[in-house]
Amino acid sequence: MTDLLAIQGLRVRFRTVGFVRALVDRVTDPYIDAVLDVSLMLREGETLGLVGESGSGKTTLARAVVGLVPVHSGSIHLNGRELVGLRESEYRGIRRSLGMMFQDPVASLSPRKTVRGLLIEPFHIHRIRDVDLDKEARRLLGIVGLHDGFLAAYAHQLSGGQARRVGVARTLALKPKLILADEPTAGLDVSVQGEILNLMNELQRQFGLSYLIVTHNLPVIRHVSDRLAIMYLGRLVEQGPTRSVFARPAHPYTQALVAAVPQPDPDKRRDHLELQGEIPSLRRRPSGCEFHTRCVHAQERCKVEAPLPTALPGGREVRCHFPLV
Amino acid sequence: MSEPLLDISDLSVEFATPRGQVKALRHVDLSVKPGRIVGIVGESGCGKSTLVSAVMGLLAGNAKMTSGSIAFEGRQLRDLTEDQWRDIRGRRLAMVFQDPMTSLNPVMSIATQMVDIQHRDPGSRADKLKKAIRWLAKVGISDPEHRIEDYPHRFSGGMRQRISIAMALLMNPSILIADEPTTALDVTLEAQIIHLIKQLRAEFDGAILFVSHNLGLIAEICDEVVVMYAGEVVEHADIRRLFHEPAHPYTQLLLTCDPARVDSEERTLPTIGGTVPDLAHLPQGCIFAARCPGAFERCRAEAPPTYTIDERHHVRCFLHAR
Question: Which in A98, A323, B297, B317 has the greatest CB count within 10 A?
Answer without folding.
Answer: B317
